[in-house]
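so my prof wants the structure for this chain in the tokens format not the other one, which i didnt know existed until like an hour ago. anyway here's the sequence
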Amino acid sequence: MTKIGFLFPGQGSQVVGMGKDFYQDIVESKEIFEKADKKLGQELKDLIFEGPQDTLTLTYNAQPALLTTSMAILEYVKKFNIQADFVAGHSLGEYSALVAAGVLSFEDAVYAVKKRGEYMDEAVPAGQGAMSAILGMTAEELEKITTDVTENGDSVQLANLNCPGQIVISGTAAGVEKASALAKENGAKRAIPLVVSGPFHSQLMKPAAENFDQVLSELSFNDASIPVIANVTAQPVVSHEEIKALLVKQLFSPVRWEESVRTMIQNGVTTFVEIGPGKVLTGLVKKIDRSVTVYNIFDLESLNVTVDKLKGEA
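here's what i got, hopefully its the right format
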């Protein structure tokens, strides 16, 4: 029996116009966009559909925009009775996974990620933090470098362990620059600076986590109806209390994406469906294990293709 994992993208996947065909043609999806506008007290859907891209990309806009788009798509996917056995999301995408698993209501989640984005934006003044993708190095090799740089006064940590040979580091601008140079000196193929608004998943995000903890304490959490693979541990979690604690840690801890995918495969998942804009996560999955099947649902056409193929496999 094929087991299915639903995957939900994080920041970086946002694009102007995402989800617009669902809004125009699908009543249930339109309601999700309208719920987001009402909860946040802003015309989020106008920003999503019309841009501009640089405004949409601001972290406190990108986070609720991506969650809303993914959930609007999922709302229509539900009509086809395609059931996930596990759910996971990359960083921000974890909140989409939690809504899919019934842990949070959509309204609470979109409010939470808006606040999350604001606190992340406030934690480190613009220009003081940075992130860089390091290619061709193991986590153990890279962690030795980031630890040395941090101990010498410039904070930098592993942020995203995405797939074999692709790890993102995050920290102060000086720390990331020094660690990137040392990585290349010690055998890394490339160090690619990322265009981001802050040093996400680094120790510099601890002030944001402290503020965000208060926001989460005001929300209603349920136990997960299907296991969620947590970014922080790369393990399935169902308990709402454990999920809440991990969401606070997630802000300053690495996203263990490669391990998360391997956990799902070890638990029998052979088919991954990425729900939301872009194909970043399924691309990473294929780099982790080429034997699995991947699909993407980002517009109505890709939904129909995916549904037809999944029904054929059933």
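also thought this was worth mentioning. The radius of gyration is 19 Å.
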